[in-house]
Predict the 3D structure of the following.
Amino acid sequence: MSERDALRRLLSERDLSGAEARLRERLQAGAPVTPLLKELPKPTFSATHRVKARLHKPAPSRAWIGGLALAAAALLALGTTQLPQESAPLSEALASAGQAEITPDLSASWQGSGRISGTEEAPIVDWDKGSLHLELTPDQGVDLHVRTREASVAVLGTVFDVERDVLGTTVSVTRGMVQVDCTQGSDPILRAGEQHTCLPVSAAGSASRLQTLVDQDPGARRAEIARAIALDDARGDVLSELLALRLELNAQDQDWQAVERDAMAYLEIGGPREVEIRTLAAQLQQRSGDCEGVRSLLSAVDKLSDREQAVLSACE
């Protein structure tokens, strides 16, 4: 079978879109086949997987093999098969930046990294980092799920965005409605114009978020610090940084007893801000008249700054 006959056969066995109908008219008018194949749309991920699956099935008759080989590009672009179409499996990595039609009902654009799995009827996007924009045609029976470490998003037909960064996972809805299940925290239903951020689930992630949100409301900041300190993985330098952040809040409130408690807890653990915290603790003890405590704290500092020397001199 020639290329022209194979393509003519493919175009005669399906309901054609406007572009495909015009393609058939040009084919019947004698236009060269190769340029026509180049004009076909890029195949969806699901169409690609369906064709790959067909190529692993037992070979059909010899006469049809020649035509199929010659029209492989048309098969991919039109997504057509001779067999009943089951829900095609999906398995594609999303890397860097790009856009694609994942299935006939789902398109995506992204800048970051993740992976698509599942099937045409139940696609799953595991999103690692960056921005992801998805558009799903409503009322097509597609059960779409997007998963990050902080959240699971269930979708039944909408346009929405997922942003995973140092602040957590933020879901924003442009059209339709989604159910967001945060790994920790609330599980809101979002409608058009609404958004929600699921907080980091690790102490390190929480500390990074808090370091970024320097202008955060003090009450919300205190609650986030308390939640992060209570996490199982809050230890070492991460825990000491969380204590330092809480210490700063207590200093703003001039709760000097709480500041001293956090400072001493920090020094028991140690961390990159140890000299700064040690000096602050020495100042507080000097104010309370505990000069022995001042000397003990500053004796661990190799070279005293002018500020530290002044605190020590006040006890002499």
Residues 59-84 have pLDDT under 50 and may be disordered. The longest strand covers residues 123-136.
